TrEMBL record:
<dbReference type="Pfam" id="PF13175">
    <property type="entry name" value="AAA_15"/>
</dbReference>
<dbReference type="GO" id="GO:0006302">
    <property type="term" value="P:double-strand break repair"/>
</dbReference>
<feature type="domain" description="Endonuclease GajA/Old nuclease/RecF-like AAA">
    <location>
        <begin position="3"/>
        <end position="304"/>
    </location>
</feature>
<dbReference type="InterPro" id="IPR027417">
    <property type="entry name" value="P-loop_NTPase"/>
</dbReference>
<feature type="region of interest" description="Disordered">
    <location>
        <begin position="415"/>
        <end position="439"/>
    </location>
</feature>
<protein>
    <submittedName>
        <fullName>Chromosome segregation protein SMC</fullName>
    </submittedName>
</protein>
<dbReference type="InterPro" id="IPR041685">
    <property type="entry name" value="AAA_GajA/Old/RecF-like"/>
</dbReference>
<keyword id="KW-0175">Coiled coil</keyword>
<feature type="coiled-coil region">
    <location>
        <begin position="215"/>
        <end position="315"/>
    </location>
</feature>
<dbReference type="GO" id="GO:0016887">
    <property type="term" value="F:ATP hydrolysis activity"/>
</dbReference>
């Protein structure tokens, strides 16, 4: 990985003359009070390596008649300079061959020199950056779309199932009601049939009465008409036989009641109302069960899609152990971005930046005063463990600072060192010396 071995800056923003040799691994903190030139150091590095799009709008130090001068030595031997009236770029490789911004762009990570831009992006933008780097962004996007579609369908089905269940519970139920609505015409036909049978019974009763009367008359006639005894006896014999049959038929007759049918006819509307209510309740319960089954099936599909997403990320080459993407957001050690500690946020950002361009071994960080000393120490130890270099600023003059900037200079450096000219390292036999303001 390529890192910054040495940097010399003169007349950029608030910097007058600064020389720094950052630690190869770990955290180099540029401390100092406000408006002393700390951020100017980082802006100078970004400008030197990132190109003119990072050039400060007022690059030349106020009050200076000498143009800005930037001189960086990288760990791969490249020398990067910006100097002169137009701050022209010069890049010299170890073999003495000149290069330009294109050579720097081949290994300098844009996010490494503008990490706050990445950290200030939304959670979904951070996650998308990671997914694109590890090459699973498109596939994960398709899976998330599929999961969203199934989830929305399941939610709609669940709402319908709940509505059906609620509707079924609110419906009255009449266990004594028949299963199907009653037809008034059927009841009337049944009533008429019973009345017809009862009419036939009455006819037979009337017939019995008539025969009884005739028998009585004939008996009297026999008594009165002895001369017609034989004829009367013959007829009496026949009538006796008829009487016996009629009596037997009359004994077996049972009249059917029409009272229940009459009541049913009168109550048919109420009965049918109960039947329809029972049918509605049964249908609502059936519908609710069907939608609940669909809901369960969609739940199974969602779980399958989520497992596929999990497997996709599990098998991906993630830049940091414990880092993942859940529901389109970065998750580290089970915590989303807004719940991560400042140290963890920096770890995640640095790991993603390194993954984007593995050859870029440094990052620039501004305003680390928001982190406490323990978090700083933890982050610095992680950088050393990962072999990364970080140059950061912090409003502080404490022992945690690698150097202190005061009024555009490095506090404690000998005055002659601060004002000494920056050597132009060319691949020539000897290195000329220079004075401040002379290039």
């Amino acid at each position: 990985m390529i890192k910054i071995n040495k940097l010399e800056i003169e007349n950029v923003k608030r910097v007058k003359a600064v020389k720094i040799e950052p630690s190869a691994n770990g955290l180099t903190i540029v401390g100092g009070k406000n408006k002393q030139g700390k951020t100017s150091v980082l802006d100078s590095i970004a400008w030197a390596l990132g190109g003119n799009k990072y050039r400060p709008s007022q690059a030349t130090r106020e009050g200076s008649v000498v143009p800005p001068h930037l001189h960086l030595v990288l760990s791969n031997g490249l020398i990067v300079e910006r100097k002169g009236k137009n701050s022209d770029l010069k890049v010299i490789d170890p073999n003495g061959e000149k290069g330009g911004q294109q050579l720097l762009d081949s290994f300098v990570n844009e996010l490494a020199i503008d990490l706050p831009k990445f950290m200030a992006s939304s959670s979904k933008e951070k996650a998308n950056t990671l997914l694109q780097i590890i090459g699973v962004g498109h596939k994960l996007f398709e899976l998330e779309q599929k999961e969203t579609e199934i989830y929305n369908s399941r939610r709609a089905i669940g709402q319908i199932a709940d509505q059906k269940s609620k509707f079924a519970k609110e419906q009255p139920y009449y266990p004594d009601a028949p299963k199907e609505p009653i037809s008034a015409s059927d009841l009337i036909q049944q009533q008429q049939a019973i009345l017809a049978r009862n009419g036939e019974n009455q006819r037979k009763r009337n017939q019995l009465t008539q025969i009884q009367q005739q028998f009585s008359v004939q008996t009297q006639e026999v008594e009165r008409l002895t001369n017609l005894l034989n004829e009367a006896k013959s007829k009496l014999k026949q009538l006796s036989a008829d009487l016996e049959i009629a009596q037997k038929d009359a004994l077996d007759l049972m009249d059917e009641s029409t009272e229940e049918l009459a009541r049913n006819i009168q109550q048919i509307d109420e009965i049918n109302r109960k039947v329809r209510a029972n049918l509605d309740k049964d249908k609502a319960e059936t519908d609710a069960n069907e939608y609940r089954m669909q809901y369960d099936q969609l739940t199974t599909q969602i779980e399958a899609v989520r497992k596929e997403k999990s497997d996709l990320l599990t098998n991906a080459d993630l830049p940091l152990e414990g880092l993942s993407v859940d529901d389109g957001e970065l998750v580290y050690e089970g915590q989303k971005w807004d719940n991560m500690s400042g140290s963890d946020q920096l770890k995640v950002s640095a790991a993603i930046v390194r993954k984007l361009k593995p050859n870029c071994g440094f990052i620039l960080l501004d305003k680390l005063e928001q982190m406490d000393l323990d978090s700083l120490q933890e982050f610095g130890q992680w950088l050393e463990q990962e072999g990364l270099q970080a140059i950061a600023t912090r409003v502080s003059t404490g022992e945690e600072c690698s150097i202190i900037i005061e009024d555009g200079y490095v506090a404690g450096q000998a005055e002659e060192d601060q004002q000494a000219p920056v050597p132009v390292q060319e691949p020539v036999a000897s290195t000329p010396t220079w004075k401040a303001g002379e290039f």
